[in-house]
């Protein structure tokens, strides 16, 4: 049996919108994943240590407009020994922010209007890929 | 499953006289300007007074916000809405608190940080507030008394009597507690107290002011459907009415008009959006007369502001949002409104550019001046479909209001998390319909394109770090220059007012005049009331 995929979700901005995160969390749970909500206004180090503590496969950040904290999480994950969780960013991401975020190590970016199916499918595929790689090595 | 409205009301293919056979014109519709106000609060509606063009505006520094407001006013906006910074002013957080400092790049993203009376003076410089209807950014319960005190103080310093000011506040529970809850909120029952203080202050001093205009808009944008939007709006107003009656200083007809200006949000469901406004007016009239014995027409006629749909805007093919804004604004115009804002077409991407913002104004002007839509009052009255749908909306909205009351009323339903769970469930139900393609969204789940067909300039506000640095310097300067004894005295005085049952507004006016900052005032409010975290089902 496959182990359940564990996802940590956080609203790092002080913008408190949560509608997007609510629907994504529900979709991930409906798809059989375990979703752990980390909280609002967490800083990069708090997000990273929560991810380690909860031993998650995926970190999902719901963000609006400016992304300094996502870049900091990227840096911290880079220095992490061992398995690195997937890092996803969703929300209002300006078009010219997408490439820099990817270059810094954000694995997936899901802008407003992304379908729930596409998010679930992406996480499943990536987690399977990683499991296969781990087995092969 | 058959065809339904977005609120789930089943729709037939065609409607006939049989669908409105029971309708009694005098009792349930009535002429415009007459009970139960289904057709509109005023007899002549737009012929006598076009709806107010009232757009949200603000970002960057207070002077950036001022420039955008002036720009919109020059191009035909007929009132103005100040947008406060979400990071600081919504929560009245300290600039050097760890939460804010770590996110200083976000400062000025959602509005200008109007953190002292001096910043309000900067934001309002050159704007003739004695002539204009205004919303001074009083968006949440914690900041509403402060924002109003600043705006009123600017007027007083200009020699404008408070009695002559016209405008509106929100002190919005939906924004603060339901739609965008941040951390360390003041508990809802204390938010209620602050709003009721403001209402009593305005009843006595500012006859032209609507101190609390409940924006059901923000409940709907969070996920609740159109019918639920009416019910939560009125449930919130009932909480104010009950508290004001409990206090016993004023009778229902002294203050009901200050609550009878509400906000709704069309949602790309043309006829239901029209029916919502017609049904809401009839419900308000019945509620105020039957439950509270109101007799003054000012108490029983509901006035409506609409904000045309941010959550139906799409990031994909963004110029399509101009059409969505037009459709929503047409529904609003036909439903009967006193004031409106149209979401800028680029808001799914960035803070509105000047180009996008002016389009929101032009959309409204074209409808008012060119389309003929404003010539005849409530032109859809008597339509088999629209009258039937108005009845359906009303019946279901009463049912939902009853459900809220079964959960202990508005404050209890909010505090227990019931309202948050309802909101999340509705948001998910909507999203699943979009996901399955049952609700079509052009450019998103159908008619997609690999390459964006329209190039939209992405507006970028002044960097947040710069806003942070300048505002920090200004607050330091203010603290150096203010009279320390008066500042300490005013803060003590405010603390006493908050801890007692006296009206907080006189102490708040003194506090902002003494140069206390929003953050200092917020800290005193939190110390007096404690803090509360929203029970989000995440």
Q: Strands, helices and their partners?
A:
The complex is a heterodimer of chains A (137) and B (538).
Chain A: E1 6-11, H1 19-30, E2 34-40, H2 44-54, E3 58-64, H3 68-78, E4 86-92, H4 98-104, E5 108-111, H5 116-136
Parallel strand pairs in A: 1-2, 1-3, 3-4, 4-5
Chain B: H1 25-29, E1 52-53, E2 56-57, H2 62-74, E3 79-82, H3 98-102, H4 117-124, E4 133-135, H5 144-157, E5 166-168, H6 173-179, H7 188-205, E6 209-210, H8 216-222, H9 226-247, H10 252-259, E7 261-264, H11 270-291, H12 297-300, E8 303-308, H13 320-335, E9 339-342, H14 354-369, H15 384-406, H16 410-415, H17 418-436, H18 464-481, H19 484-499, H20 505-513, H21 518-529
Parallel strand pairs in B: 1-9, 2-3, 3-4, 4-5, 5-6, 7-8, 8-9
Helix pairs in contact in B: 2-4, 4-5, 5-20, 6-8, 7-9, 8-9, 9-11, 9-15, 11-13, 11-15, 13-14, 19-20, 19-21
Task: Outline the structure in words.
The complex is a heterodimer of chains A (137) and B (538). Chain A is of the alpha/beta class. In chain A, 45% of the residues lie in helices and 23% in strands. Chain A contains 5 helices and 5 strands. A 5-stranded parallel beta sheet of chain A has the order 2-1-3-4-5, with helices on both faces. In chain A, helix 1 crosses helix 5 and helix 2 crosses helix 3. The radius of gyration of chain A is 14 Å and the shape is globular. Chain A starts with 5 loop residues before the first strand and ends with a helix. In chain B, helix 2 links the parallel strand 2 and strand 3. Chain B has one domain: TIM Barrel. Helix content of chain B is 50%, strand content 6%. Chain B has 21 helices and 9 strands. Chains A and B meet through helix 1 of A and helix 3 and helix 17 of B.
């Amino acid at each position: 049996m496959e182990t359940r995929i564990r996802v940590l979700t956080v609203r790092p901005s002080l913008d408190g919108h949560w509608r997007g995160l609510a629907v994504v969390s529900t979709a991930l749970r409906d798809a059989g994943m375990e979703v752990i909500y980390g909280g609002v206004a967490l800083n990069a180090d708090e997000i990273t240590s929560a991810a380690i503590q909860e031993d998650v496969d995926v970190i999902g950040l719901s963000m609006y407009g400016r992304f300094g904290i996502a870049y900091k999480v990227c840096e911290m994950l880079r220095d992490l020994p061992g398995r690195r969780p997937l890092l996803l960013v969703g929300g209002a991401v300006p078009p010219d922010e997408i490439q820099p975020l990817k270059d810094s190590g954000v694995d997936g970016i899901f802008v407003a209007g992304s379908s729930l199916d596409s998010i679930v499918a992406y996480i499943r595929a990536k987690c399977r890929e990683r499991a296969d790689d781990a087995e092969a090595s | 499953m058959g065809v339904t409205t977005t609120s789930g009301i089943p729709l037939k293919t065609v409607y006939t006289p049989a669908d409105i056979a029971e309708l009694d014109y005098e009792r349930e519709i009535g002429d415009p300007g007459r009970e139960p106000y289904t057709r509109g609060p005023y007899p002549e509606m737009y012929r006598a007074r076009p709806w107010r063009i009232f757009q949200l505006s603000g970002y960057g520094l207070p002077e950036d916000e001022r420039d955008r407001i002036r720009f919109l006013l020059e191009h035909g906006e007929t009132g103005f809405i100040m947008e406060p910074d979400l990071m600081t002013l919504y929560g009245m957080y300290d600039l050097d608190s760890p939460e804010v400092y770590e996110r200083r790049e976000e400062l000025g993203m959602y509005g200008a940080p109007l953190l002292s009376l001096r910043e309000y003076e900067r934001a309002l410089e050159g704007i003739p507030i004695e002539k204009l209807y205004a919303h001074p950014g009083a968006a949440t319960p914690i900041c509403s008394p402060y924002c109003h005190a600043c705006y009123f103080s600017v007027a007083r310093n200009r020699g404008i009597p408070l009695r002559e000011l016209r405008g509106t506040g929100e002190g919005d529970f939906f924004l603060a507690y339901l739609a965008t809850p941040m951390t360390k909120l003041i508990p809802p029952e204390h938010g209620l107290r602050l709003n009721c203080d403001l209402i009593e202050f305005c009843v006595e001093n500012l006859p032209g002011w609507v101190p609390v205009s409940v924006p059901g808009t923000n409940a709907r944008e969070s996920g609740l459907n159109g019918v639920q939007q009416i019910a939560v709006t009125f449930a919130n107003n009932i909480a104010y009415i009950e508290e004001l009656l409990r206090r016993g200083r004023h009778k229902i007809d002294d203050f009901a008009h200050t609550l009878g200006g509400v906000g709704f949000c069309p949602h790309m469901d043309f006829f239901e959006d029209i029916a919502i406004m017609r049904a809401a007016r009839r419900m308000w009239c019945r509620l105020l007369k039957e439950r509270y014995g109101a007799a003054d027409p000012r108490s029983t006629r509901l006035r409506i502001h609409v904000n045309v749909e941010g959550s139906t805007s799409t990031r994909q093919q963004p110029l399509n949002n101009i059409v969505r804004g037009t459709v929503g604004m047409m529904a609003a115009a036909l439903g009967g409104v006193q004031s409106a804002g149209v979401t800028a077409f680029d808001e799914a991407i960035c803070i509105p550019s000047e180009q996008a913002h002016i389009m929101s104004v032009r959309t409204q002007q074209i409808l008012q001046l060119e389309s003929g839509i404003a010539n005849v009052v409530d032109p859809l009255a008597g339509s088999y479909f629209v009258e039937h749908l108005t009845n359906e909306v009303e019946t279901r909205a009463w049912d939902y209001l009853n459900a809220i009351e079964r959960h202990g009323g508005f404050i209890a339903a909010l505090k227990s998390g019931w309202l948050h769970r309802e909101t999340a469930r509705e948001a998910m139900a909507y999203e699943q319909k979009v996901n399955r393609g049952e609700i079509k969204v052009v450019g998103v789940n159908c008619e997609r394109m690999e390459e964006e067909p329209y190039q939209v300039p992405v507006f970028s506000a002044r960097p947040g770090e710069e806003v942070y640095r300048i505002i920090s310097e200004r607050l330091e300067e203010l603290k150096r220059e203010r009279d320390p004894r008066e500042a300490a005295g005013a803060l003590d005085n405010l603390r006493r007012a908050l801890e007692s049952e006296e009206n907080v507004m006189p102490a708040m006016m003194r506090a902002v005049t003494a140069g206390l900052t929003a953050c200092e005032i917020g800290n005193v409010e939190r110390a007096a009331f404690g803090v509360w975290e929203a029970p989000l089902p995440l």
